[in-house]
Amino acid sequence: MDDTIITRLTEDKFYVVTNAGCREKDAAFLTSNLDAWNNANQPRVDKYELRNQGLVALQGPLAADILQSVLAPSSDDIDLKSLYFGSSRFLTLRFASGETSKPVLASRGGYTGEDGFEISVAPEDTVAVTELLLAAGGPEKLRLAGLGARDSLRLEAGMCLYGHDLDDSTTPVEGALGWIVAKSRRSAPRNEFNGAEVILPQLVPVSKGGKGVSRRRVGLLVEGAPAREGAQIVNAEGQVIGAVTSGCPSPTLKKNIAMGYVKDGQHKSGTELGVVVRGKTRKATVTKMPFVPSKYWKGGISPA
Predict the structure, then answer these.
(1) pTM, whole model, 2 decimals?
(2) I want to staple 165 with a disulfide (CB 3.0 to 4.6 A). Which of 17, 31, 201, 245 is the partner?
(3) 242 belongs to a structural domain
(4) What is the Cα–Cα distance from 114 to 95, expressed in whole angstroms?
């Protein structure tokens, strides 16, 4: 599985953002399935591929205020408080010169666990939009952040990184993502989807007559040196039961955190395990994720 995001823009229009590393295979998959549908069904579904789009991620408790302040007059009647987590809207931005951007698609969410927006921008506007937002926030409210900061934030938020915490061999149940299979998709007539023959039996544990899984993704609090990707996870008897897939010091918690896969049965919160770091076993405790509470905007009380 990979982290493709699908947004329903209108009744009959969808916006699909694939993982960059999976772009070619995802495009081939969509094309193949659309061709099969169009050869046998109506109405016809057409696919238009956008290339070389820019993407600006505006994240943090002040993100909405900053974005609201640069909306063009045509978007002045849009109150971003009504744009909830997981929703998208086309907006036009106003530059300092008075000119406006081409329409941008602002999706409320992001890869940090914070409130914010991922803004899809025309290639020629990418730098100008970035500079516009930086100027609107000023250095006391908004700064550029690199991949290292992004990586620590997404790990604090318990989010997976494709190619590390997830790959083509991982099922949603193993990855602690069974929640993405809605209850309405778990039984007829809506239980026919890609991978259903593997995923649905795994959703039911062996104790209840299902297939279950042999491994599960967990969060870990690690004492001593931080555990990095590839570090072995061991049980109380020193037996290897899994491996770390991501790990780093948490700037927010001031503790070392990690996620990885362990043998089923060793995944319950509070389980005491060990992680081998530089040849030494460090104490690790299974903990619930996210490590730091998420602050997505869902209306009601402000996440600030």
Answers:
(1) 0.90
(2) 245
(3) yes
(4) 26
